[in-house]
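Field reference: sequence -> structure
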Amino acid sequence: MTTAYLVNHTHWDREWYFSIMDEQVLGEQLFTEVLDELEAHPTANFCLDGQVSIVDEYVAIHPEAKARIQRLVNEGRLFIGPWYTQTDALVPTAESIIRNLIIGIKDTEGNYGKPMMIGYLPDSFGFNAQMPTLLKQVGIDNMVFWRGINFKRQAGSTYFRWHGLGNKEIVALNFPFGYFTGQITPEAKQKLNEFVEQKYDPAIKFESEHDQNEDVLIPSGIDQMNIVKNINQTVEQINSISEYHTEISTYPEFVELIRHRSESLPEYQGELRLPTYARVHRSIGSVRSKLKRENFRLEQKLLKRVEPLCVIGHKVGVNIGNGLLTKAWKKLLKCQPHDSLGGSVSENVAKDIWQRYKEVDELVDGIENMVKKKIAQYLKLTSSQLLVFNTDPHEFDGYKEVDIVASTKKIKIKGMEDAEIVSSKYHPAREHILMQTPHGEDYTDEPSYYELRVRGKVQLPALGYKVFKVIDSNEKLPEITAGKFGSYGIISNGKQAIEFSDGEITLINDGTKIKNFVSLLDQPNDGDTYDFSPYKDFKEQELPFQSVGISKGKHDVMTLRGSASLPLDLVDYTDENPRYGKLSYSLDIWFNELGQVAVKLLVDNQINSHRLRVCFSPQINTDEVRAEIQAGYVTTKNEPIDSDWQKEFVEKPVNLYNFDKSLNLIDADKHFTFWGYGQKEYQYEDGSLKVTLMATTGELGKPNLKWRPGRASGDTTSQGHIMMATPSAQEKGQNKFVFAFKLDDGKFSEEENNQLTNKWLQPNISYQLQGLNVFINRLDNKIWATERTPKIPEQIELLNLPKEIVVSALYPSVTDSNSYILRLENLTNQVVILPDFIRDKGQVVNALEEPSDEQQISPYDLISIKLSI
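Structure field:
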């Protein structure tokens, strides 16, 4: 006889169309009732959605409840963790997902007790193919989820062994009808016969028939739903009606039950994004694109700049506590649940997300400012000296950009070759300026000066810093000069060239011209904040460029300008008297020192409800894309879509895919690579790679979309709900997009691509101790010198790794104040052997800093090493 294991829980969106403040009001009542009910009924249990952040917020309001929570957690009746927040699984980078787990587990252990060690993600909109690998970083060997699976096409069972891209494997448990499968509401109790016969038993039957499961998982709960009162009595009544047997259970108990028979489970490898039993919103990767780009920028700022800077700072006596870094991560992770990072939120919530982004930015800027200025003070630098950092544990020999304040452009940076000014800002002299002196207030005249950004070739130690001397010169530094705009322009790096002629961008490679290599495409969007949707029969149109200008310097920059008059809104495509708006854009293109073509696109968007994509036509003979995802690569190929797709899917399974950093088209003797900076969605069709830049909309949820029939997502057409306008999701005004691409003659190598991606993302970090403008770095005027300072060298190097070793993260240890964690990633199908000196100097651990016996990096895997500062 089939047994249903009933798990009582609540699903807790921290924000959606309601805000976090609203959510805390809801939690005030619900969480208190949960504690009361569990204490009154010793056989009951409850799961608080697998995220500890909501518990922290409740305890901040009810500190007296902490002891009650600890007691119930230790009794194994209240389940919290392991996540800090319920993460989206497709947009955040791998390291964000790992940090979400680390912080969630550590917070739960430190405050409440043992976390629920289950990869519990009941409502995320699909899953990347590396979830097994990421979960195993913290010792979790299982996952419980809802959306994204198709049993006919994929695992064949509700319970299966899910393999990552390498050798990591977990047990995966799916509830195909959602986390509300066995939702026992007060109304359901009153009509229990109807509930069991029409909903409960059919769900058990469906789950049991897939791979003949005699034990099935039935979650009982829904969004912000309270604990089921007197659940023992209700289950007794269900058992008297149902043709199946029901037992009260927990997620850990059921996982253990399935784990015991894991060897007999079917196996699966790959992503889970098919909209068979639930929507996954396959085009949500382009909704509120500003939010996604800002998330990526802040991830990189933490990972590539601030955390390694803290390690360098600690080495020389600048000790930034882990609390500040953790606070920054927590604020960022609060922006990464599926609704928040997906962008399917109300206007009020979008403002909250941007406020948290602002706070993250201020925190990390302040930390960086503190580390840089204190090191400069310890070194007793003058304004004629420049401190330049390398936060990557590889020696650097190449071009960096540095920021300098100088009274003249007649300067030279000793040790920097091939230098040129890439931007400058002039500040005129000021008279009668107040000055604080040891004898009181005084007044002085402040001279004029320049803020300069200078690019040049330097050599830097690995994971360290170096001091450069700024000296006077008889000649001005070379400076990029803007050229006149016309109808023709060309730039070259000696091997390739980019030509603009007759309104078309051509890439010239070894004498071969590839016309219309790059273009911008636009079309109306009838979608909402969940999905793009085509509007009637209007197709994509190519946007024109009208003029070109070449800025001359050591690296010429081509600037293309264009504008298009487009229907202002959807109705204007069919209205007899349509209104038109202007879409203006400029594209800066240059060959950088890494051999890439770097691009900065500025779009002044004055049009509503449209989708903008950048299109590449590199003439690569392939029908596949090798896409970089979290900690690995997957190959995507367009699947045929039947005209009667609605018989199998609840939304059209369009060939739109997500990626993390790079996309690759690979031929036998050449390949093309696109590197994104926060772009997350692509499509490959008819030999063209199309990357979505933005898909704007004015509605939270709309019904009956062309690719998504039926009800509106977001509950806006549900009973008692209202339609919600989202004017900020139109993303009006200036939008900035950064990316790069490269057409390469030669075979594609994942190892080489990983190294190039890492170099492209490396930041420019410099500092000058000067008094002309102490607001260039916001906290400079409040970071005072101390009387006693350590004596430190003008150049240090903490760690120098072989070039083939790629770093995922480098940050201060959370368990040992004198150590740091180096997490390495292997995004290839070959084993990477750890260098002897790494094994000798450090201890291999998991992401929780617990000892591990792994001594090599398996294919498509990560490894963590704890090293002493």
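Note: The CA atoms of residues 1 and 492 lie 73 Å apart.
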